[in-house]
Amino acid sequence: MPTELPAERVFEKMVELRRAFHREPELAFEEEKTAASIIAELKRLGVPYEYGGVGSGIIGRLVGNSDGPIIALRADMDALPGAENTDLPFASRYADRMHACGHDAHMAMVLGACALLVEQPPAGTVLFVFQPAEERGGGSRVILASGALDNADAIFGGHVTHHYQVGQMMISKGIITAQSDRFSIRVRGTGGHGARPHEAIDAVVISGLLVAIIQTIVSRYVNPIHPSVVTIGLMKAGTAANVIAEEAQLEGSIRSTVPDVRARLHEGLRRICDSLAVLFGAEVILDITAGYPPVVNPVRESQVAKRAARSILGPEGLIPLEHPSMGSEDFSFYLQKIPGCYVRFGARGPEQKYVPLHSPAFDINERVLVVGASFFDAVVREAMREYAQ
Fold this sequence. Notes:
By secondary structure, the chain is α+β, with helices and mostly antiparallel strands. It folds into 2 domains: 6-175 and 294-388, Zn peptidases (Aminopeptidase), CATH 3.40.630; 179-290, 2-Layer Sandwich (Alpha-Beta Plaits), CATH 3.30.70.360. It is built from 9 helices and 18 strands. The relative contact order is 0.20.
C-alpha cells in the first residue's frame, strides 16, 4: 500500500470519529446519538445537511459546481444486537449491542472523504448519505422514498472485510451479493402423552424430518453451478420431557443469486411442507418473506471505481472477485434505481487473525479508514469526469 494517501491528513480525526461511533452503537432505526455525531461533524466542516429525525437518514450536500454531475456516497449507521468481546478501550458501552459489521468505519470513511472534498471542491455536487437500518429493515428504501437521490447520477458504497488485508480492495462488475429471503414454518399436530405416541401427531418428529429433508433442496434440487444456501437457524417446540408437542416453529433463510434458482428453492420448500403435512396428517404452514435483492454492479460504474482505486493503491491493490458473497446488502435497492458500484475494503492488518463479520470479536485495522476515505474522494472526482463527458 502506498505510504502517503490523500486521507492521511484526516486520519486522526477519522479514528476519533470511528471510536466514538463504536463506543455508542445503536440498533436499526434508533440511531439518535450516531446521527447527532454525524451532524456535528458536517457542521464543523461547513456542509449543509437534511435530517428528518430518528429513523431517517442524513443527507449532506456539497456543491462545487451546480451544473456538474451529482454523485452520492453512502454509509450505514446501525449496529447489531449482541455482546462485544474485543477488550478494546473504546468497546461498546452496552452489553446487548455492538458495531460487529464495521458500520462505524464506513461512517468515518465518508466523513473523512467529506473533509477532503471540502478542501478541494469537486466539479459537481456530492451527496453524503448516512442511512439507517442496513442490518434490519432495509433503510436504503427510506432514503430512496425521501427523494433525496432522485437526481443523482451515480452512488458508491463499500464494506470492510477481513477477507482482504489493508491496502487491498475488491471491485468487480456483476453479482456481488446474494438475494436473501426468510421463511418460517409452523407445524401443528395433536399433543399427547409421551407414553402413547400412537394417540398423537408429533410436531417434533415432523420438524426433525423437515430439518433433514430441507437440506436436500440445494444438494439435489438445484443446479450446483449456481450458489445457493438454505439454513434453518431457529426451532421451537415442546413443553415437557413426557409430553408430545402439538406445535413447533422453524425459521430460516434462503440465499440465491439467480431468479430461476430462487423460484426453485421456494418451490422445493413448499413441496416438502405440503408432502409432510399429507404424510402425517398435520398442518405444515410455510411463510416466505422476500429480503434484499442481489447487489449487481453495472460495468460502467465498476470501471470508474477501478480507476479510482488504482489511482491510490496501484494495480496490485485490486483483488478480483472469485465468487459472489452469499451475504446480502440493502445497497441493492439503490442500484435498482441509480447506477453505482459497491466495493470491499480489506480491513485485516498484517498480523491480525481473520475474524468474520458479525462476530462479537470483530475489529478492524484502522489504517483501512485512510484507504476508504481516499477511495471515496477519488471515486467522486473520477465519476464527475466520466459523467461530464
